[in-house]
Amino acid sequence: MQHDWSRYWRSPDRPIEAMHAHFEQHVYHRHSHETYSFGMTETGAQSFTCRGGAHTSAAGMVMAFNPEDPHDGHATNPLGFTYRMVHIGPDLVSNALADATGHPTGLPLFTAPVLDDPALAGALRALHAALLGDATALRRDELLTATIAGIVRRAATTPIGRPGEPSRSTRVARQTRQLLHDRLTDDLTMDDLARSTGTSRYAVYRAFRTEYGLPPSDYQRQLRLRTARTLIADGTPIGEAAVSTGFADQSHLTRWFTRYFGLTPGAYRQAVTPGQPRSR
């Protein structure tokens, strides 16, 4: 009987990460990534909610998430699912799509989070295998560029960005987001958020959830987890990373880290810094 497992890889010098996992019991908490996230389901099926709808990615299907697209995820049935996911930073996507003169062409927007496209699934699998395998740097770059171009050509719609001035609601959401970034470890209240934006607590909550798909408290926790993940990858002891990012202790960080990222902080550190001790 197969049990939950996950393997992770992180580029030491570029914003690329890759995950290969099988889950039967694990349930992802609703979260988002700073990156574009492209994946393919190898076996079984996984169900998730994204952009206000329920979706299922069965074997051979492709998933495409924009940066900051909130989503969750779990096995569709008790047999579980196996999938490969590649996370690519927006700047790297922009560079891969630059025109012949080297000028960026803008960032793509994916409106369908699930695609039934065998060609794209094959390209993603090849890219993922190269990242986790022993392919040369040149081969990895070729596959990365070709895969990004292919998925944009076949699945993207309009560029990201809204014309004109942002609405009052959008400005409130962005101001709130900046406060959460600036005061990462502070125990902020809704009154703090309301005062900083000059509006009511309900208006802040509604504006933020409309803009980012998460309540401010979930975004705050996610931001702390992302920061802790960076610290851990840079060699900070897990307990120290927990306290410095606002978690009560290492076990508190571990519980939430696993719910968001699908592996423990210790397993993540071992994956991205081979040779490091498993606990510290």
Describe this entry's structure for a reader.
By secondary structure, the chain is an alpha+beta fold. The chain has helices spanning 90-96, 118-132, 137-155, 168-182, 190-197, 201-212, 216-233, 238-244, 250-261, 265-272, and strands at residues 5-10, 16-23, 28-31, 36-50, 53-58, 62-65, 71-75, 81-88, 114-115. The chain contains ten helices and nine strands. α2 runs antiparallel to α3 and α7 runs antiparallel to α8 (238-244). The longest helix is centred in the middle third of the chain and has 19 residues, at 137-155. The chain starts with a strand and ends in an 8-residue tail after the last helix. The mean pLDDT is 90.
Please report the first level of CATH classification, the CATH class of the largest domain.
Mainly Beta
At the fold tier of CATH, the topology name of the largest domain is Jelly Rolls
Compute the CA-based radius of gyration: 19 Å
Count every beta strand, where a strand is a DSSP E run of 2 or more residues: 9
Question: Structural class of the secondary structure composition?
Answer: alpha+beta
| CATH-defined architecture of the largest domain | Sandwich
Low-pLDDT residue intervals, each spanning 5 or more residues: none
Mean pLDDT: 90
Q: What's the total helix number?
A: 10
